[in-house]
Amino acid sequence: MNVIMSTLNAKYIHTNLAIRYIKAYAAPEFDIDMAEYTIKDPAMNIVTDLYRRNPDVIGFSCYIWNIEETIQVMKMLKKINPDLILFAGGPEVSYDVREWLERVPELDFIIIGEGEAAVKNLLLEIQGAKQYETLDGIAFLQNGKFIMKPQREKLKLNELPSPYRFPEDIPHLGKRITYIETSRGCPFSCQFCLSSIEVGVRYFDRERIKDDIRYLMANGARVIKFVDRTFNISRSYAMDMFQFLIDEHVPGTVFQFEITADIMRPEVIQFLNDNAPAGLFRFEIGVQSTNDRTNELVMRRQNFEKLSRTVTMVKDGGKIDQHLDLIAGLPEENYDSFKKTFNDVFAMRPEELQLGFLKMLRGTGLRLRAKDHNYIYMDRAPYEILGNNILPFSDIIRIKQVEDVLEKYWNAHRMDYTVEYLVNEVFATPFDFFQDFGSYWDEQGWARIGHQLEDLFKRLYQFLDEMEVPQTPVIKDLMKLDYLRHHKHRPRKPWWDERLSKQELTELYHMIAEQPIRFGDSFATLGLSEKDANKHIIVEPIGFDFETFMRTGNIIQTPSIVAAYFNPKTQQCELYGMNEAVKS
pTM score, two decimals? Predict the structure, then answer.
């Protein structure tokens, strides 16, 4: 029997852990073939590839991001071959099961909950007596009768074979994210999250996990993301794994974790600040809301003071990037309350601030009690809200405008100097900047067209110019620095129009070659000729003291000259002022 486990990932760099667990568990009785695609792949291409593999059975792993595309593929496959047996599993189809079977009659079975044993037992029954009503963890329609048999017992995790050691995965380990889990379940009860439904946390044997990580690193894995819902729920477990990863990591490998920040003890953070190599770890932290009433309504326990302490301490350590999440649209969080939440979190200056919108996931308490807050939401995945009793759709539109420019101008870190100045010196709060600029961006129609890097600078400057911001000259100089320092090579034509004359440039390049010490000792040691300067340096006048700004962040209105050196060896931009060299 030819069996395929398939899924449509959101992006090529993603991998699906579920189908790998199922493949490992089904062996040796079944040699399952894995077939991964993306939601961007045309359905005809996916169907063609699957058809050519000549399957008898195909199982699909389903989530909110791929369910509609997966249904399209399943319907086409069943039309081509009505005898093909199709089943689906995953969080999206594990709830409202009867509705799925009726909506997608092409589906023969749905797997409910953990799929390893359920899928293997289903395959054995397909190959054998076909007494499907004897199985657990499965649902199906039999002669129009709905039959659902929930999973009776949780799997013993240490009896599951490793899903990380398939030879066909090795060529891709360096190009894609490798997902790994050390536990299943979540101790919390957040009513917007599917993890709240499973009670308790179960752990895999940590020594086995360590062996798997050693194997993955030895075979080229570069980004390893732990999918544990709360990696640090057990301090001793987390500390042991942190120590192991610090001691045995392969240089260039990055490990990502979802942590609960307000339960992380200061001594753990200090240990990481003292011992972890910079860039080895990345933390994802769900803040969601700082509104106490909102958190109470969704049964979310959170101490924002302790969370802030953790985030600040990690940031001050300079070793670990942090990704913080917010959710707009939670109960009793109106526009003004969300604005406060945003400003509370932005004040910590996380490397990335993800602004998402509440999704009414099937099976969650919030969806079951949606009428309590007059929620309206999309009928189909991703079930994003369209409004509730205190957040109308008009306010959701406004917050989406914030999301758009936040992604481009903060999370991408193209203009850190500029944005920092704007949110501190020009606008009342960070949210006000992103909202005002986001609304302007939308009004101009820019959300519907593409953009180059230069466009981002021109559009921000146009917005500030039309607002008649009095600090525009300073802001423009900061934008120049931001633009230059993010280039690997000398840009052919900067985005600003006014430039030094040819005569002024000639004199400056001559001075660079003859008196390099004027740009500081570090610049002088470069030993650049006038020819090198012309080839690899852009010089620009700015209206404030460059050296003071780079050292303290303060703006002193003393004109200076900046030399941006695009180092051909390191392919990085190095910024130098007249008095002291400062590397960007």
Answer: 0.94
